[in-house]
Amino acid sequence: MSRRFVNQLSHGDSIDESYLVADKQLRANRQGNLYLQLELRDKTGSVGARLWNATEELARTFEPGDFLRVRGKTQIFQGSLQIILTHVDVLDRNRVEPEDFLPQGSQNVARLMARLREILLAMHNPHLRALVECFLIDEEFVRKFTSAPAGIKNHHAYQGGLLEHVVTILDVADRILGLYPEVDRDLLLTGIFLHDVGKIEELSYDRAFAYTDEGQLVGHLVMGVEILAERVRATRDLTGEPFPPELLLRLKHMIVSHHGAYEFGSPKLPMTLEAIALHYLDNLDAKLHAFGREIRDDPSRDSTWTPFQQSIGRRLYKGTPAAATSDLEADS
Known about the structure:
Blueprint: E1 14-28, E2 34-42, E3 45-51, H1 56-59, E4 67-77, E5 80-91, H2 109-120, H3 126-136, H4 139-147, H5 161-176, H6 185-194, H7 199-202, E6 203-204, E7 210-211, H8 213-217, H9 220-232, H10 236-239, H11 245-257, H12 273-297, H13 322-331
Parallel strand pairs: 3-5
Antiparallel strand pairs: 1-2, 1-4, 2-3, 4-5, 6-7
Keywords: Hydrolase
Domain HD/PDEase: 158-296
Protein name: 3'-5' exoribonuclease YhaM
């Protein structure tokens, strides 16, 4: 029997299915009774789940990254779909198909990598091109870069998401840079490529998406600067010259400032044209992707609005449902 994916669930469904545990919290209600709050995931998305009257013994039997067979029933609560669980069993991870559980991007990874190479290897600055080549000839780096998500929840949270995010920004920059001749094209393109490079080590993504210990303690901005500094030392072998200190300084600044504001984790504000451009291009792609996902994945098919989303501080207008639009057109 074919499995029921998360994006196929709707209000009132009876559930008997296997999912990956993306998050687990053991909580107590107002009466002091324990319950489990879970985030369950497959390749199509995630859904919240609760198991009432849980025990500490049960909670210790599995962790995020494990697989559960769950039974229960779906319901809409405060505008979001969730599963009220009645039973959970831990599954042997060797008896599941991993590709069913980690979210995948819709774009072809080989095609994305070909586009990334096309844009970056056409740069004219020999030092920046050599730097990029030092990354792209490293098979282990390429494996991680093409597998990593761009985030755990907020945007491009699927395998290959980091690559897709970077290539989208590169494509946008490639189309508009002719309008801004004062911006150093090669420097901006290299900064786009490297701005989130620390995420290949900040995140773990072999099973459930999570932060590594180093990712929690240091973060991808600092880790990105460290990775950059390591590769810069290797460019001398390709160019026969030391990497220009000014270029290195500007690239470091782009990495540490690309979040754009202190409250969003940037230790420095963007202070060069390329850093400012990077920040806004990065933010544009992240926001449009995240907002589009909220609209696309909203389980309330008949509503013209999404539920209020705390993370973005608003509801989003989805427009008139397609069926209703067709009825209106037929009546006109």
